[in-house]
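Input record (one chain):
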Amino acid sequence: MNIASVKLVNGGLKGVVVTYSMTSEKDKRSFIDEHVSKKKAPIHEDLEVAFESLGEHLLDICGYTSKDKDNVSVTGVTYNDKGFVITGKKKILDGDKTINLVTPLTNGDDYSEYEAVCKVLDTIYSETEDYMSGAKVFSDAQLVMRFNAGKEDFDVETFKGLSSEEQRDLATTILENMGHIVLLTDDVVPSEMSEPKLEVIGFIEDPFIDVPESNPKMKVVNNDTDDDFDMPIIKTAKKSPLTMIKGEGDSFKIVAEEPRQSTAKKKQA
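The corresponding structure, as predicted from the sequence alone:
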């Protein structure tokens, strides 16, 4: 796989879109074929951190200062031997709105920190390969804290004190409410060392989730050929989300919210 670009979906919470090229041969002729592959599982921490480290470079190239580093997020990169392009978003108007940032094609003659950026981009491409192959996956704690980042009623220390099962339950609920089909699997290791993990196996249609396609489908990757094919999705009911609620003093508890009723059911009531 020769990656050409990586684009985050919803900041990586809903996966990535990867454009890559592969060489094929027919009648003793070699061809370079371009492929676009989508994976909808949240990205793992190493890939997330690598993207975040490009924020100040994106600001610098686009003419902003590092004081805006907390208001910028990198959404995609394109990189080859001719240079790189970084895309992102910057919060404005007290964070209520954002503007798009896109660097020009940048090389060593244009930017003094070019080599430093290229090292990060090499890391992003390497981590993306690990993500696409399943060699690296997100952790429950990373997913929950990323999803709740910026929420005033979410207490990080209390969450870290939860058991692994409670953290996994919260992570599972987040994934299912984003439209994922989730299975709990065990690593193939001796039982005393085995630790269950979440595996995202698909993406489902949901009445409460905005899906741009009129007939959404689940994208499945054939690991033998690297070719993608479409599989019809499965309709399923949405589970009530779990959330952490602050009680008296410093206490917190996990509760399930009441499931939302459809408009038709409300009218019948």
